[in-house]
Write a structure and sequence with these properties.
287 residues, alpha/beta, 6 strands, globular
Length: 287
């Protein structure tokens, strides 16, 4: 079965990428919104100039394994396990790919601060993830622009994607004097957008270890492959704020005077990466 060189959801017009800036594509997904003690948002980042290289690499693995279905954490099975482990290795072996996620304990959310509305809280937390990471990456006045591609945001508000873009840009304008760091934000179908599928896979693995929900051996081995690349035994921890390759951030408000229950671990990558300077954010959250 032949695959197109560029799946429709991965196509981007070169006109949106301003040549005088370093442009990045950021693919976002969510997890754990229903029947879970936590909800989370994951983001998979690549330089815009790699937008053709990335799906080409994925398609090569698809042909190798005969795996044509949507890449998704829930689709890991005995006959797809090797494909997913190769995807994990591909991610960690490419210096230009990174993954960052934000995990929020539902019991920790101050509903009163959001008008008693979990929906509004989730939208704010989604915006917080790319905003905080972009603020760190743009520190020092670096000329960078970001293009977010999100799976349908979990909200009853029909224009949640537009609202998120305005929130992120308004915050960045106030904090780092960057008028429009998020150049574009579009909702995309995850079934045809490879970057969102990668965000789903990596976020799903993290959330599965946090929830302890999966006992299936193939999923256990995929999680182990990720953990071993980090130098960890499992994924039930978070990382320091400046960890750029694979970053797990748990939302925590130090002003509430509560002790953090999550252990922070140093990452010791099996495949060493070039360090990228990033400032930890100040304010109400740890990163």
């Amino acid at each position: 079965m032949a695959l197109p060189d560029m799946p429709p959801g991965d196509e981007e017009s070169a006109a949106i990428f301003l040549p005088e800036y370093r442009n990045y594509l950021v693919y976002c997904d969510d997890s754990g919104l229903h029947g879970s003690t936590h909800y989370a948002f994951g983001s998979f980042w690549i330089p815009a100039e790699r937008r053709g290289d990335f799906p080409a690499l994925i398609n090569a693995l698809r042909r190798k394994h005969g795996m044509w279905n949507e890449i998704k954490w829930t689709k890991i099975a005995p006959f797809t396990e090797r494909f997913y482990i190769d995807l994990v290795n591909l991610f960690f072996e490419r210096k230009w790919m990174m993954f960052h996620c934000l995990i929020v304990a539902k019991a920790y959310v101050d509903k009163a601060a959001h008008g008693g509305d979990y929906d509004l809280a989730r939208r704010k937390h989604f915006a917080l993830l790319p905003k905080t990471k972009i603020r760190a990456l743009c520190a020092g006045g670096a000329k960078k622009l970001y293009h977010l591609r999100v799976d349908a945001l979990p909200s009853r508000y029909k224009k949640a994607d537009e609202a998120a873009e305005k929130i992120i840009n308004a915050s960045l304008r106030a904090e780092i004097d960057q008028p429009r760091a998020v150049r574009t934000l579009f909702t995309r179908d995850s079934k045809t957008t490879t970057g969102i599928q990668m965000a789903d896979l990596l976020l799903g693995a993290v959330m599965d270890d946090w929830g302890g929900s999966s006992t299936a051996a193939p999923k256990q081995r995929v999680k182990k492959a990720i953990a071993e690349h980090l130098g960890w035994a499992d994924l039930r921890a978070d990382t320091v704020p400046g960890e750029w390759k694979f970053n797990i951030w748990t939302f925590w408000d130090p002003t509430r005077g509560e002790k953090r229950s999550v252990k922070t671990r140093p990452v010791r990558l099996r495949v060493p990466m070039r360090l990228v300077a990033a400032r930890p954010a100040s304010g109400r959250s740890r990163q």
